[in-house]
Amino acid sequence: MSSPPERGARSPLSTRLRRSASLVAAALLAVLASGDDLGGAPTKPTSEFHFVRMFYHDGALGRSYRGFGDRSWTVDYPEAEFHFHLGVSRLTRVDIGQQARMLRVTDDAIFDYPWLYAVEVGRWFLDETEAARLREYLDRGGFLMVDDFHGTLQWQGFVESMQRVFPDRPIVEISEGDEVFHVLYDLNQRIQIPGIAALMSGRTYEQDGVTPHWRGIYDDHGRLMVAINFNMDLGDAWEHADDPRYPEPMTTLAYRFAVNYVVYAMTH
Predict the structure, then answer these.
(1) What is the number of structural domains in the chain?
(2) How far apart are the C-alpha atoms of 260 and 185, rounded to whole Å?
């Protein structure tokens, strides 16, 4: 198996991506308001697999940026996608498209993609229509990975909307023997994967989220539909893959989780 992408000084491209991230987030909000395609990507898939970021409206804990609401869903964009693409293309033979997608769950195009990513879901709000559509997507074989939310309050914010999606399905701890931890890499080492801000302050946790949890929601046949990375920030580990301040073992583990989630989603 190939090694994760090489690390070193941050590339000029990554630097430009980082500096433009806030402006891009504001531009995305303007695109949303116009009703156009999110980010200008083609609606239909052009490769075997695409990173698909889920748009959502902010709830009570949501972020704002210079008067713009609904910013939480854009966190780590576009660097997380950029490095995710590098990692998956290096470590697998999956034909992953270079251009990621950003979709509302109410967009019919969502059914063309087997894998969906939602970030900072402790801050999200799904209304009944959005919840019903996400439930349909998952029941029909879709896979949702959620990431980067921490502590008691954000857990409550996540669960409030997720219970509208699946009021009758429990959230459980994923067992060590679950196939999602072994479908390609054997993920027997599961340490907390932190955000870089927490790491720079000498901790691996945020708020009161001291203990990492890998939780999930399953269908009636035992298929994992929702992979819940709680008290962790895999998106930051991808985003800072070429940053020498971020520990390489954590980046490597975050890539391996990503690869397993992708392969599981495409084969189940």
Answers:
(1) 1
(2) 7
In the three-class reduction of DSSP (H, G, I as helix; E, B as strand; rest coil), residue 232 is classed as strand
Exposed/middle/buried for residue 7 (C-beta within 10 Å: 0-12, 13-18, 19+)? middle
Q: Which of the 8 DSSP states describes residue 108? A: G
| Residue 160 included in any domain | no
Buried-state track 104-113, b at ≥16 Cβ within 10 A, e below 16: ebebebbeeb
The structure tokens listed for 32 are 């949303």
Alpha carbon distance 32, 29 (integer Å): 5
User: Is residue 240 within 8 Å of 246, Cβ to Cβ?
Assistant: yes
Tell me: pLDDT of 259 over 50.
Answer: yes
The residues near 222 (Cβ < 8 Å, ≥ 6 apart) are none
Query: Average model confidence (pLDDT) for the chain?
Result: 87
Q: Is position 234 within any domain?
A: yes
| Dist CA 118 CA 121 (whole Å) | 6
